[in-house]
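Support request, priority: normal
Reporter: lab tech (M.K.)
Component: structure prediction queue

Hi team, I submitted a job for BTB domain-containing protein from Eragrostis curvula yesterday, and the status page still shows it as pending. I've pasted the exact input below so you can check whether something in the sequence is tripping the parser. The sequence length should be 298 residues. Please let me know if I need to resubmit or if it's stuck on your end.
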Amino acid sequence: MHTGYGIKFRATLTSDHATDVSMALTCRVRDQPGPSPAVTSSGALRNRQGEDVVFVSGTVLADPRYVKDGSIVVECVIATVVKVRDAGAANALPPTISAAAPSADLHEHFGELLRSQKGSDVTFLVAGEHITAHKCVLAARSLVFMAELLGDNDMSEWENATSQHVEIKDMEADVFRALVKFIYTDTLPELDDEDEDATTLARHLLAAADRYGMGRLKLLCEDKMCAHISVGTAAAALGLAEKHGCPKLKARCMEFIVADPADLQAVVATDGYRHLMATCPSVLSDLLLASVQRARSS
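Reply from support: The job had stalled in the queue. We restarted it manually and it finished. Here are the results:
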């Protein structure tokens, strides 16, 4: 930038990341015999701010030693020091780039072990169907299976035993198969929200989970049933919740039944409600109390 008095240079910090930089700017005009005296400016720069250095006066520009063919040669040296705010960050090593770890696939390997039946050492007879599995996997996931399959024997005794056959009573084969699959893979079968058979499977699977001490599976089935309470299923689900200790499901069923007098009358007329009266008469007292409290609050 030219003025009536000389030439001014400006150093400006344009980085979006550095916020505190110490700078020393040295400028001089070159000539044939030797350079002109240096003019130095030092200061701290902030983002988008500049530091000016006025180093050439009008008399210097008129000197033929510095002006050649109407031009001059200027030498500029800029030294900068970035201030480090965190001493720990100053000594930190640069971040390394590493490949992301693959997602866990343990359930897939156990699922393949169940599918292949390799090394299976127990066969269950369930509703006329044979279902094979591995005693060590079942015992590791269920204390009930551990007691039934291993008993008080130590590892060496049951490892050398021949394939064992166990009959499972009062359970459908597809329910037991879903139970065993969950034990191996920790995943539920596909339960279509609109499929009545899926809702029935969830109900029976909840009972199986309670029978074999599978707490996580029981909670998952309970959540599934809570999301699909209807006039036709409310009474049966309430009886199931009372029998197997599912407080969340019980509360959801009672809330649905007493919320609307029309729904209450419809539920009372179902076979499920009559079965509830015969098998769980105590829950009717809770239902009556909930109905009274609902009427008082409305």
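The chain is about 45% helix and 20% strand. The chain has three domains: 6-84, 107-223, 229-298. Let us know if anything else looks off. Ticket resolved.
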